[in-house]
UniProtKB/TrEMBL annotation:
<dbReference type="GO" id="GO:0004714">
    <property type="term" value="F:transmembrane receptor protein tyrosine kinase activity"/>
</dbReference>
<keyword id="KW-0808">Transferase</keyword>
<feature type="transmembrane region" description="Helical">
    <location>
        <begin position="411"/>
        <end position="428"/>
    </location>
</feature>
<keyword id="KW-1133">Transmembrane helix</keyword>
<feature type="signal peptide">
    <location>
        <begin position="1"/>
        <end position="18"/>
    </location>
</feature>
<dbReference type="InterPro" id="IPR045272">
    <property type="entry name" value="ANXUR1/2-like"/>
</dbReference>
<keyword id="KW-0812">Transmembrane</keyword>
<keyword id="KW-0325">Glycoprotein</keyword>
<keyword id="KW-0067">ATP-binding</keyword>
<dbReference type="Pfam" id="PF12819">
    <property type="entry name" value="Malectin_like"/>
</dbReference>
<keyword id="KW-0732">Signal</keyword>
<keyword id="KW-0547">Nucleotide-binding</keyword>
<protein>
    <recommendedName>
        <fullName>Malectin-like domain-containing protein</fullName>
    </recommendedName>
</protein>
<keyword id="KW-0723">Serine/threonine-protein kinase</keyword>
<keyword id="KW-0418">Kinase</keyword>
<dbReference type="GO" id="GO:0004674">
    <property type="term" value="F:protein serine/threonine kinase activity"/>
</dbReference>
<keyword id="KW-0472">Membrane</keyword>
Length: 459
C-alpha cells in the first residue's frame, strides 16, 4: 500500500513539473522568418509579431551572415544594428507581474556597410534597470549570452533599449528572450535589511559541480551550466560522483525549474576513508567585480550517503561560517537524493574581488562517511542603489544623453525622479554602513520556509 502511494506521488510530480511560462518571448533579431535553434526552440522574427516591435523611430538596419559552421546556432546569423544616436528599442507586453528572465544574445560579424560607426559600444536598459553599461563585444564571431532577472510589477511591459555610446559607435543584438520565471525562483523578501526593494540580477557563474556541461536542451529553463574545473581547488580528499537514480523533488522543496536533475545527479564530495575525519575543504574561487553585492546560491542533493543522518558539514562563504553542521537529511525531510538549496548574500562594497566557497567536515562529521557535498552553484551580481548592474549611473541618465520624441521624454521624467531618489539613498546608505563589518548575510527564511509546506514524502 505505502509503495503504491509513493509511486503515485512521484508520477504526479513528474507530470506537474513540465513548466509552461505565462510570458515566453523568443525573438530572432534582424530577420523576417522564424528560426529553430539546435535546442528545438523556435525564435520568432522581430519584424512579424504584433506584441513587440522595434521602435519605429529607430533607423535600424538588419544584416544576415550565412554560416557554414553548423555548430553555430542560426540565431547568430542575423543581427539588428542601430547606429548612433538612435537607440534600438524592443517592447514586450507581459500578461503576468513578477520576475522575468531576460536573456540577450550577441555575436557580431562584418557588416560591410559604410557609415554605421566603426565599433560596437552601447548600454542596455530594461525598464528602469541598467543591465549593461559601456558594453563592447570585441572580437568578431565571439558568442556572448547575458542572463538577467528583473522584477516587473508596476507596468505591463518590458522595454529593452540598446543605446549606442558615442559618435562612432553602434548598438546591436542577435536574439532576445523574455520569459516568466517560476514562482520559486526568487523570494520577494529583501535580502538586505536596509534595501527594501526588488533587485535586478545578472548571472555571472552557473556551475554543475563535478559534472559535464548542461545545455539548454537538458535544462528546464533553457539555461547553460558549465563544468566547475576552472574554479575548483582541491585539497586532495575530494572525489567526483555521479548518480543514476531518480532525483526526489519534494512538493514545497526546490523545484526542477530552480535546478534540473542533470545538475543534481553529479557532485563532488569529501570523504573520510580511514578511521578519522579528513581535515580538508573543497574550495571554489570565482573572480567578481568590487563594489557590488552578490547572491550565492548553493545546490545540494545527497546522492552519496548510504543512509540518512550520516552526513554533517560546514559551509563557508568568503571565509565566514555560513552553515555549521548542515544536515541535508533534516532539511529534506529525511529523504536521500532530494534537492535543497541555500542562498547567501555577500555585500561586495568593501569586499575583495573574489567569491570563495569552502565545504568541509564539521564537528559532527563521522569517519567512514561522506563529510561534505556540493552539486551546483550559482553566483548572481545584484544591482546597486541606482538599479544598475554596471556603473553608478541610472537608466534615466543613459536615456537622456541623447533622446528626442514625446514617448521617450515622458519615460525619462519618471526614471529621472527615481534616479534622484536613488542617489540620495546611496549616499545615506554609505554613511550608515561605515561601521558595519558584517560581510555576508544568510537569507533568513530558507529553512523555515521549506519546512512549512505540506510534506509529501512521509508515506
Ligand atoms: C565552429 O564553431 C565552433 C565554436 O562554436 C568552433 O569551436 C569550431 O572550431 C568551428 N569550426 C570551424 C570549422 O570553423
Ligand atoms: C567605456 O569603455 C572603454 C573601454 O572599453 C573606456 O575606454 C571608456 O572610457 C568607457 N567609457 C565610459 C563612458 O565609461
Ligand atoms: C542531455 O542529457 C543526456 C543525459 O544526461 C545526454 O546523454 C545528452 O547528450 C544531453 N543532450 C544534450 C543536447 O546536451
Ligand atoms: C575550511 O575553510 C574555512 C574557511 O576558509 C577555514 O576556516 C577552515 O579552517 C578550513 N578547514 C580545513 C579543515 O581546512
Ligand atoms: C543627439 O542626437 C542628435 C540627432 O538626433 C544630434 O544632432 C545631437 O548632437 C545629439 N546630442 C548629443 C548630446 O549627443
Amino acid at each position: 500500500m505505502s509503495i503504491q502511494i509513493t509511486l503515485l506521488l512521484t508520477t504526479i510530480l513528474t507530470v506537474v513539473s513540465a513548466y509552461t511560462p505565462t510570458d515566453h518571448y523568443l525573438i530572432n533579431c534582424g530577420t523576417t522568418t522564424p528560426t529553430t535553434d539546435p535546442n528545438h526552440r523556435t525564435f520568432t522574427a522581430d519584424t512579424s509579431s504584433p506584441n513587440f516591435k522595434p521602435n519605429p523611430l529607430s533607423k535600424s538596419l538588419q544584416f544576415h551572415n550565412p554560416e557554414t559552421n553548423l555548430t553555430i546556432s542560426p540565431i547568430y546569423t542575423s543581427v539588428r544594428v542601430s547606429p548612433y544616436p538612435k537607440p534600438l528599442v524592443y517592447f514586450f507586453k507581459v500578461k503576468e507581474m513578477g520576475v522575468k528572465l531576460v536573456r540577450l544574445h550577441f555575436r557580431k560579424f562584418e557588416f560591410g556597410v559604410k557609415g554605421i560607426g566603426c565599433h560596437d559600444q552601447f548600454h542596455v536598459v530594461a525598464n528602469d534597470y541598467v543591465l549593461m553599461y559601456n558594453f563592447s563585444i570585441g572580437d568578431f564571431s565571439t558568442v556572448v549570452v547575458k542572463d538577467f532577472m528583473i522584477w516587473v510589477d508596476d507596468v505591463d511591459e518590458v522595454v529593452i533599449k540598446f543605446i549606442p555610446l558615442g559618435k562612432s559607435s553602434y548598438a546591436f543584438v542577435n536574439a532576445i528572450e523574455v520569459i516568466s520565471a517560476p514562482e520559486d525562483m526568487l523570494e520577494e523578501w529583501s535580502y538586505n535589511k536596509d534595501i527594501r526593494r526588488k533587485r535586478g540580477y545578472e548571472m555571472l557563474y552557473r556551475v554543475n559541480v563535478g559534472g559535464v556541461k548542461v545545455t539548454p536542451f537538458n535544462d528546464s529553463l533553457w539555461r547553460t551550466w558549465s563544468p566547475d574545473e576552472g574554479f575548483f581547488k582541491s585539497g586532495g580528499s575530494d572525489r567526483k560522483i555521479h548518480f543514476d537514480g531518480r532525483i526526489q523533488y519534494r512538493v514545497g522543496g526546490a523545484s526542477r525549474e530552480v535546478c534540473p536533475d542533470n545538475v543534481y545527479n553529479s557532485a563532488r564530495v569529501v570523504e573520510s576513508l580511514g578511521g578519522e575525519v579528513v581535515k580538508d575543504n573543497m574550495t571554489w574561487v570565482f573572480p567578481v567585480e568590487k563594489g557590488f553585492s552578490y547572491l550565492v546560491r548553493l545546490h545540494f542533493c545527497d546522492i552519496a550517503s548510504i543512509s540518512v543522518g550520516m552526513m554533517f558539514f560546514n559551509v563557508y562563504v568568503n571565509g565566514n561560517l555560513v552553515y555549521e553542521n548542515l544536515d541535508l537529511s533534516k532539511v529534506t525531510d529525511y529523504l536521500l537524493a532530494s534537492p535543497f538549496y541555500a542562498d547567501f548574500v555577500v555585500d561586495g562594497e568593501k569586499f575583495v574581488d573574489v567569491m570563495r566557497v569552502d565545504i568541509g567536515p564539521s564537528s559532527l562529521s563521522k569517519a567512514h562517511a561522506v563529510d561534505g557535498i556540493l552539486n551546483g552553484l550559482e553566483i548572481w551580481k545584484m544591482d546597486n542603489a541606482m538599479k544598475s548592474l554596471g556603473g553608478e549611473v541610472c537608466a534615466g541618465q543613459l536615456e537622456s544623453s541623447n533622446q528626442s520624441g514625446g514617448q521617450v521624454s515622458r519615460l525619462f521624467s519618471l526614471t529621472a525622479a527615481v534616479c534622484l531618489l536613488a542617489i540620495a539613498f546611496l549616499v545615506m546608505r554609505r554613511k550608515a554602513e561605515a561601521k558595519d563589518s558584517v560581510g555576508w548575510s544568510r537569507v533568513p527564511s530558507e529553512i523555515d520556509l521549506k519546512s512549512n509546506y505540506p510534506k509529501s514524502t512521509a508515506v
